UniProtKB/TrEMBL annotation:
Family, as annotated: Belongs to the protein kinase superfamily. CK1 Ser/Thr protein kinase family. VRK subfamily.
Short name of any one Pfam family annotated for the protein: Pkinase
Keywords: ATP-binding, Cell cycle, Cell division, Cytoplasm, Kinase, Mitosis, Nucleotide-binding, Nucleus, Serine/threonine-protein kinase, Transferase
Composition-biased stretches (Basic residues): 7-17
Positions bound to ATP: K71
Region (Disordered): 1-26, 342-441
Compartments it resides in: Cytoplasm; Nucleus, Cajal body
Protein name as catalogued: Serine/threonine-protein kinase VRK1
Length: 441
């Protein structure tokens, strides 16, 4: 029998974790490479730590234009340590630069890891990580655009995601949580998009040895329910095809406005079975998503190609790119590196009968500065389910996570709240055993 879905309002909550105390602007942290970083004003509080604007240490004050952000949390907390493992193995600047050059890319949308370490203050120890600073997330842009993106934009985002996923897959990891709220625009260049939040990133091929397919009832439905893969619904560890399946659902939602199973997200078994039906008859699935206009042929071909992959297969990334590029050509567009979020339709898009879905309520820890386009997103709970009526359904909230990567300049020492988006950041997958971790030195 299939595993029972947890009822809303039941289940174990995440263990209590300590919050970091606030450091004054000007505090200097030294990473494991002996490089010093200076903190600016705190610009937000995540579930387990504080976020600060930051820059390389100098006599200058860290200003509102700081290019980095540092997340600080008590050293005996676990979320930041978990994400650090991915960044230290796969996101070093020289690795990203080498890949970008060898693959003739203009940029690669993977955040760079600039350093980490431990900091002692008084009798307490804190772990910190230095990362790039980013701007708005795509979920905010999606909502602002009436929950629809132009076809050209969707295909361009798909091409950027293929570049990102191929890179992280070739470095032994899968992301497992691709979605609009985890895609952030560059702070300096709004035509560049980055995939963040590696809290669920999974090392599917340690030292080149592929993990075997194995269903684990304790891990069923891991990830973000509307987008997560069929493998995840069955409790199977994510693989390369999982990322591409999730990406396919995202592109279709961005173009049609709503996936067929979004009315019953409180029922994970229903969502799982709906996705299995979609995989079995992709043409019928596309007809449900685009009932009143032509189906985007390239997205159907994309999903058909992903369907052919076995659990351990390496995807044909270039073939998938060619499918999306053909879609651009079919609507008289080209990949000009300009991300245009206008609501004007270019080819197939959402039907006029598609319901506009209001923004989902999120757990909010801080606000954005209304005078700045960049912001920090609020914490999302991953493992402490609560009954909350959202869009007509009782949705189970997810476990706390937070990320230091999308931030805004704010008035000195003023913590602010950001709207309604999910934090790209740190989370521990449901069902994974909690391990006591040693500090990263």
């Amino acid at each position: 029998m299939p595993p029972k879905a947890k009822a809303a309002g039941k289940g174990r909550g995440p263990p209590k974790r300590k919050l970091a105390e606030a450091f004054p602007p000007g505090e200097v942290l030294t990473d494991t490479g002996k490089k010093s970083w200076k903190l600016g004003s705190p610009i937000g509080q995540g579930g387990f730590g504080l976020l600060y604007l930051a820059d390389e240490n100098s006599s200058k004050t860290v200003g509102a234009d700081a290019p980095y952000v540092i997340k600080v949390e008590p050293s005996d907390n676990g979320p930041l340590f978990s994400e650090l493992k991915f960044y230290m193995r796969a996101a070093k600047p020289d690795l990203i630069q080498s890949w970008t050059k060898s693959h003739k890319l203009k940029y690669l949308g993977v955040p760079k890891y600039w350093g980490s370490g431990l900091h002692e203050k008084g009798d307490k120890r804190y772990r910190f990580m230095v990362m790039d600073r980013f701007g708005l997330d795509l979920q905010k842009k999606f909502e602002e655009s009436g929950r629809q993106f132009p076809r050209k934009l969707v295909l361009q985002l798909g091409l950027r995601l293929l570049d990102i996923l191929e890179y992280i897959h070739e470095h032994e990891y899968v992301h497992a949580d691709v979605k609009a709220s985890n895609l952030l625009l560059s702070h300096k260049n709004p035509n560049q998009v980055y995939l963040v939040d590696y809290g669920l990133a999974y090392r599917y091929s340690p030292e080149g040895i592929l993990k075997e397919y194995k269903e684990d009832p304790k891990r069923c439905h891991d990830g973000t329910i509307e987008f997560t893969s069929i493998d995840a619904h069955k409790g199977v560890s994510p693989c390369r095809r999982s990322d591409l399946e999730i990406m396919g659902y995202c592109m279709i939602q961005w173009l049609c406005g709503k996936l067929p199973w979004e009315d019953k997200l409180q029922d994970p078994l229903y969502v799982r079975d709906s996705k299995i039906q979609c995989r079995d008859d992709i043409s019928a699935f596309m007809s449900k998503c685009f009932p009143s206009q032509d189906k985007p042929e390239e997205l159907q071909k994309f999903m058909e190609e992903v369907k052919t992959l076995s659990y351990t297969d390496k995807p044909a990334y270039q073939k998938l790119r060619s499918i999306l590029e053909a879609g651009l050509k079919s609507v008289g567009a080209k990949d000009d590196d300009k991300l245009e979020f206008s609501s004007a339709l270019n080819g197939a898009g959402p039907s006029s009968s598609a319901k506009k879905i209001p923004k989902r309520k999120r757990v909010v820890d801080y606000k954005e500065d209304s005078n700045d386009e960049s912001y920090v997103t609020p914490t999302k709970k991953r493992k402490s389910p609560k009954k909350k009526d959202i869009n007509g359904v009782k949705k189970v909230a997810s476990a706390n996570k937070a990320s230091p990567v999308n931030v805004a300049a704010t008035p000195k020492n003023k913590l602010v709240e950001t709207g309604t988006q999910t934090t790209p950041g740190l989370k521990r997958a449901r069902g994974r055993p909690k391990k006591k971790v040693d500090p990263v030195e």
